[in-house]
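Section 5.1 Outputs to date
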Amino acid sequence: MRDDEECAAIRSAEQHLERTLGRIDPADLAPVPVVHVNLAVRHVDISRAVGCDALAAALGELMQIAELMLAQQHYAFDEESRAVFQQYLELRMKQPHFANARSVRNAIDRIKLRQAARLVNQGGMVPVQDLTRIDANDVRKSRVFTDGGDL
C-alpha cells in the first residue's frame, strides 16, 4: 500500500469511528493503555504499549502462539522451560525489532536447533519424550539472557 493510500485508509477509519462513537474527549481515554501502531512494518508494537494489562494480555497471547507452534511440530515445553520462555519473551519484548509472532517463531526455531545439538552431543539412544521436550537450558542459551542480544 502506498503512503497516500494508507493515509486515506486511516482517515476513513477515523471518520467511521467519529460517526459511530461521536467525538471522544482524549481525557476520557487516560486509563486505556496506549498502543502505537507502526504502519511501516504493519504490526502492533507491543514493546511500547503502556499499561500492565496490555502487556500481560500480549504476553499471554504470545505464549499461546508459542505453545500452538510447538504442538503443531510435535514439541512441548516442560514446566520449567515454559517459565523460562515466558521470561525470554518479557525481556525480548522490551528490545528493538521485536516482531510479535514472528519473533516467537524465530525463537522457537533457534530453541529447536539448540535442542537438536544438545541431543546429538549427548549421544546414544534418545528416548522419544526427549525428542519432543524443550528443555529450559535450550531456552536459557539465548543471547537475550546472556548479553541482552535479540536472539
